[in-house]
UniProtKB/TrEMBL annotation:
Pfam family, one: Mal_decarbox_Al
The protein's name: Malonate decarboxylase subunit alpha
Originating organism: Hungatella hominis
Source lineage: Bacteria, Bacillati, Bacillota, Clostridia, Lachnospirales
Superkingdom of the source species: Bacteria
Gene3D superfamilies: Glutaconate Coenzyme A-transferase
InterPro entries: MadA (IPR005777), NagB/RpiA_transferase-like (IPR037171)
Length: 545
């Protein structure tokens, strides 16, 4: 019986690659033949592509390998963000993909799936994908990105550590080959800190240019609409204050940005400072700066960095997790665990919701994936510590469960594309057509506790059954087909019972939902409030000029 086949395979690959490496260092110009020497057909390959940090140099090099030598790869790319991520499928280098989020590539991915150019293994939440690296998607080769390396392969990931530790460890300790592209190679002892030990890393290569970063989570306050403000006011008073929510996550979008900018104004008016929204798990949103500066925020655990926030996070170590070098230490896997078990509330937006509260961002023509939303947007049955917010969600069925996480979905009742509430999610049809065993639903209706539209709040955790859940949604989507399923008498009854709340039920005037309520009305104002520490990203500066 041979017990070290994987180790022997790694040794054979590294021997084949010896001509391209001097110690651990691979020449920039030799990266393509080097990859051809370490890769084998059918390999499972991790390519770091997360929200803000992309192993772009290695992705471009992988696209250039000879498909006669390297083909049928099973790619594991957490966030499909670049053209090269899909180019490798068109060239026959890869055949299957497992991912979490697609974003700007969602339309192209959908088209390629329809043409059978790409086979989707599964669409995952981030934590689920990381977990499978240690179960049934353990990589043969792992391609990652870092800021700096020394000759021993020690890596400094700096402001944007993100998912690098989880990806590299899965390969490093299971006879996989770990290759890191770096912006700079420094002398021994010259790294600001060691984020990934050299013992995990087999090869380093200096990229031809620094890896790209995008301000994915930045939302310009200038784009926040009065509807966002009204929904934010209702959420602050009708959910956060009502349940005493102290720890939370906001997903990407203008709804969360509006709430963050309302805390130092509307929240102060309600006397809520120190009572709600003190501990956060989220990327360092610029729109949170006014609340930080006003003393609302006690701590932030970051999934990743955000372009322009480097100096601000370094200057606020009491708020953010930072290293001895002063820079932010982000960690997507740790933050996902914190978001799963450590927080009381998840708030996110959705593109589509069905009549039972199921929601998805996978809609007609798009395969955008989920990111971390399903991980944080579920009832977290394994949690055992309690808080007021958690206990408020305790089931009324005689269950011994002490409570559940608040899962809040926000959406306008309708948009230029039609009603947000539909009888059946597009995801059901898309999943069926793509041959998926399960429809790519982002958040299940049973896990959603609150839905907020510009019309009001539906407290779905109080619904007795699926039929009542539908009628509660209809109450806050009047003027749409689901709204026609509930009569005026039922609406009034649900308002009296506290199952639905309209603005007037919360003593909120829609006329008060004006932009003047925002603590900052532009990114430039946020930069001023930060004392000049926040730098508005170039693409947003161009927009504002």
């Amino acid at each position: 019986m041979i017990w070290d086949k994987e180790r022997r395979s790694k040794a054979e690959r590294m021997e084949k690659a010896a001509g391209y490496a001097r110690g651990k260092r691979v020449g920039t110009e030799e990266i393509v033949p080097f990859l051809e020497s370490i890769l084998r057909p059918g390999d499972r390959v991790v390519l770091e592509g997360c929200n803000q940090k992309q192993a772009a140099f290695l992705a471009e090099a992988l696209k250039e390998v000879n498909p006669e030598k390297v083909h049928d790869l099973n790619m594991i790319i957490p966030s499909i963000s670049r053209d090269e991520h899909l180019d490798i499928f068109e060239r026959g280098i890869a055949s299957e993909i497992n991912f979490s989020f697609a974003g700007v590539q969602s339309r192209r991915l959908a088209e390629m799936v329809a043409e059978d150019t790409v086979k989707i293994g599964a669409i995952h939440t981030y934590l689920e994908l990381y977990g499978r690296l240690y179960v049934d998607l353990t990589p043969n080769v792992c391609l990652i990105a870092a800021d700096k390396a020394d000759s021993n392969g020690n890596l400094y990931t700096g402001y944007n550590t993100e998912e690098t530790p989880m990806l590299s460890e899965a390969a490093a300790f299971k006879s996989g080959i770990v290759v890191a592209q770096v912006n700079e190679i420094v002398g021994e002892g010259d790294l600001p800190r060691v984020d990934i030990p050299g013992g995990w890393v087999d090869y380093i290569v200096k990229a031809d240019e620094p890896y790209p970063m995008e301000p994915l989570f930045t939302r310009d306050p200038a784009q926040i609409q009065e509807a966002h403000i009204l929904m934010g006011m209702m959420t602050v008073k009708g959910i956060y204050a009502k349940h005493g929510v102290e720890s939370l996550n906001h997903g990407i979008g203008y709804n969360g940005a509006a709430i963050e900018l309302l805390l130092p104004t509307f929240g102060d008016y309600l006397g809520l400072k120190g009572k709600i929204c003190t501990k956060w798990v989220l990327n360092p949103h610029p729109t949170l700066i006014p609340a930080v500066e006003a003393g609302w925020v006690k701590q932030v655990c970051a999934f990743g960095g955000e372009l322009g926030m480097e100096r601000y996070t370094a200057a606020r170590p009491d708020i953010f997790f930072t290293g001895k070098d002063g820079m932010l230490r982000s960690n997507r896997a740790a933050a996902q665990v914190a978001g799963l078990y450590g927080i009381d509330l998840f708030l996110g937006g959705t593109l589509q919701m069905d009549y039972e509260g199921n929601s998805s961002t996978v809609t007609g023509g798009r395969l955008s994936g989920f990111g971390g939303a399903p991980n944080m947007g579920n009832s977290t049955g394994g949690r055992r510590h309690t808080t007021k917010a958690w206990r408020d969600m305790a089931p009324l069925t005689g269950s011994m469960a002490s409570g559940r996480k608040l899962v809040v979905q926000m959406t306008k009742s309708q948009s230029k594309y039609g009603p947000a509430f539909v009888p059946e999610l597009d995801a059901v049809r898309i999943g069926r057509k793509a041959g998926m065993d399960a429809a790519p639903v982002m958040v299940y209706g049973e896990d959603v506790t609150h839905v907020v539209t510009e019309q009001g709040i539906a407290y779905l955790y109080q619904a007795q059954n699926a039929e009542e859940r539908t009628k509660m949604l209809g109450c806050i989507a009047q003027g749409t087909p689901v709204g026609s399923m509930v009569g005026s008498g039922e609406i009034e009854r649900m308002r009296r019972e506290g199952k639905v709340a309209y603005p007037q039920d919360l003593a909120i005037s829609p006329d008060a939902a004006k932009r003047e309520l925002l603590a900052a009305k532009s990114l430039e104002e946020i930069a001023d409030l930060s004392g000049g520490l926040y730098r508005v990203p170039e693409q947003f500066r161009k927009k504002s000029e």
